[in-house]
Design a protein that fits this description.
- The structure holds two protein chains of two kinds.
- Chain A is an alpha+beta fold.
- In chain A, about 55% of the residues lie in helices and about 20% in strands.
- Chain A contains 13 helices and twelve strands.
- The longest helix of chain A is centred in the N-terminal third of the chain and has 38 residues.
- About 0% of the residues of chain A have low confidence.
- By secondary structure, chain B is an alpha/beta fold.
- Chain B has one domain: P-loop containing nucleotide triphosphate hydrolases (Rossmann fold).
- In chain B, α3 packs parallel to α5 and α5 runs parallel beside α6.
Chain lengths: ~375, ~220
């Protein structure tokens, strides 16, 4: 009977119910979209890092991790040094990363080295870099920018000629010749951001690692360790905090919406509350009805929020597939739901207690 | 004292409006035997409704004694008065006071649910609904029912838990003559067939004539 009372109350004020669902759903969508973006972008970057096929990553000892954009560069001569002087190194590849539009990065590489390391790119259209000004982009970037083979793209103030559209998942989203990129950036002596090493046997990773630490001032790290460290959300400064802030905003909005909505509902239903009390409804019964209604608003808002997160996913995938990658995160549905229900319950407490404390005689006289 | 369904002695109720004390009952004495149909008449402000609210457990008295179905209401807590309203008294109001979002059936069922009743209505109660003439209107919401039908649903709701006392506060105040008569006959029928104790406030002498006895209230006292 409580369920029927609550359901009929929601059904008889459809606009109020729908608006409440919508307003509660927005923070749910916000939480799910943010979590989906965080997870999607990190997994995408992680997959591309794995796709390089290297065993060890070498970078300047004080460079940053994350978006393949280590700020401190290494002289390119080290690539040859690793190739010739360091035991067990089968292949060495230097790449230069430059941010063009965060989080998009253009990567300068030597295609022969890249092909040797992992078999090279898979081409959806066109083919490999041949001329110095050729450029490759992945399918997502081509879709986002509506690019076709033969188009001229201006990046870093330089016109590039699109010769290939590559499948994603290997190192770069946008790739050009390393030498040309170094020239475009006006480097006096050629530098690279990172050097990838492939060893004769992965069992030698520790030995090579130690060798590099002892003989250079560079930082070497097994690829697996790097991927684990760089693309773990808890290791990215501020990300967790940012998500917590959004969650807190979600709770506050859910709380405020439900508080306002239920307060209005209690005002509108003062007389009905009086009737329920006159026929023996206890304070607890009245409070239970108000809380149940708030919970139902919270559940409805959560479901709508989940549906809207699919909308956000579709929009991101359609409009900016290259810049942002969002995943649907079903694991977070119950979490977002629980967060919303906490906010809704807290928000309904004051109106609920106020309704429970109504004097039945005054409530019955309410017009 | 226990042979009376309702008994009050020197019952007083003072409302406070800001700093002003407004006496609504000034020593009301009333004795209603079990099974009586009593009409209470009196001008506005004479304390009729306040007397009803105290007997019905909607508000506590300021002083005096009041016993309803053997219960001393003066000593009851808020929870105790809530329990009284669940099972011991039933209300019928002038404005019907049905829950607008629920069907007639659910309006009756919610009172039963609150009192702990479950399942379908008993055959006896189904028969009563037929006597009230609302058995075919139970799946309609109040806004689809006439005033007379709404008041009959309200009567069904008031007696669904077999209360010791039925309190009817101007039950015909919002009804036309024909519906008023029908409702009054139902109340009389309930009293005669089932021995239902009924206290009815009315301004209408014709309505009061349906009762066994009429008492008059004036200035917070029963004359």
């Amino acid at each position: 009977m409580t369920a029927k009372l609550v359901f009929e109350n929601l059904k008889n004020k459809p606009m109020r119910s729908l608006l409440s669902f919508l307003l509660i759903g927005v923070p749910v969508t916000l939480i799910l979209t943010l979590q989906g973006l965080s997870s999607g972008m990190l997994n995408d970057a992680k997959a591309r890092a794995r796709g390089v096929g290297a065993d060890i990553l070498v970078r300047a000892s004080n460079s940053t991790v994350g978006l393949n954009t280590g700020a401190i560069d290494i002289p390119e001569k080290y690539v040859n040094y690793f190739r010739t002087e360091v035991p067990h190194v089968k292949l060495a590849m230097g790449v230069f990363n430059r941010i063009i539009d965060l989080p998009l990065v253009v990567t300068g590489l030597n295609l022969d080295e890249f092909n040797a390391m992992n078999g090279g790119f898979n081409y959806a259209e066109g083919g490999p870099l041949r001329a110095p000004d050729d450029i490759l982009v992945d399918t997502l970037y081509a879709k986002q920018k509506k690019l076709h083979i033969g188009d001229t793209i201006t990046l870093l103030g330089h016109p590039w000629h699109l010769v290939g559209i590559i499948e994603g998942g290997k190192l770069a989203r946008i790739a050009v010749s390393l030498k040309t990129l170094q020239q475009v950036l006006g480097q006096e002596s050629p530098h690279v951001t990172w050097i990838y090493l492939k060893l004769d046997n992965p069992a030698n990773i520790d030995a090579v690692d130690n060798f590099i630490q002892q003989h250079t001032d560079l930082r070497a790290q097994p690829m697996a360790d790097y991927i684990e460290a760089a693309y773990n959300p808890s290791h990215i400064a501020g990300l967790s905090e940012f998500i917590y802030v959004v969650i807190a905003i979600g709770v506050v909005i859910g709380f405020a919406v439900v508080c306002l909505s239920m307060y209005m509902a209690v005002l509108q239903r003062t007389r009905e509350i009086g009737i329920l009390k006159a026929i023996g409804g206890s304070n607890g019964f009245i409070l239970r009805i108000i809380l149940a209604e708030a919970m139902l608003l919270g559940v409805g808002g959560t479901i709508l929020g989940i549906i809207m997160s699919f909308g956000a996913w579709w929009l991101i995938r359609t409009l900016v597939p290259s810049s942002l990658q969002m995943e649907i995160v079903p694991l977070w549905w119950p979490i977002a739901g629980a967060i919303t229900l906490v906010g809704a319950t807290l928000g309904a407490l004051y109106p609920g207690l106020s309704a429970a404390r109504h004097d039945p005689i005054e409530a019955l006289a309410y017009e | 004292m226990s042979s009376y369904a309702v008994e009050t002695e020197d019952l007083r109720k003072i409302y406070r409006v800001g700093n002003v004390a407004v006496p609504a009952l000034r020593g009301a004495n009333l004795q209603v035997p079990d099974g009586e149909f009593l009409a209470i008449v009196g001008p506005s402000g004479s304390g009729k409704s306040t007397l009803f609210h105290i007997i019905g457990g909607l508000t506590p008295p300021t002083s005096g004694k009041v016993r309803v179905a053997g219960l001393d209401l003066a000593s009851l807590t808020d929870a105790g008065r809530t329990s009284l309203r669940k099972k011991t008294v039933g209300f019928v109001f002038q404005k019907f006071n049905l829950l607008p979002n629920l069907t007639a059936r659910d309006n009756i069922a919610v009172a039963r649910y609150i009192a702990g009743g479950k399942g379908a209505f008993s055959k006896d109660f189904e028969e009563l609904l037929r006597l009230l003439g609302i058995e075919k209107r139970l799946d309609h919401k109040p806004n689809a029912l006439s005033g007379g039908e709404q008041q009959r649903v309200a009567i069904a709701r008031a007696i669904v838990n077999h209360p010791a006392i039925l309190l009817a506060d101007e039950p015909t105040g919002n009804l036309d003559t024909e519906n008023s008569r029908a409702v009054l006959e139902i109340l009389r029928d309930l009293n005669q067939r089932r021995g239902q104790t009924i206290l009815m406030i009315t301004h209408n002498p014709e309505a009061a004539a349906f009762a066994h006895r009429t008492v008059r209230m004036r200035d917070g006292r029963v004359e």
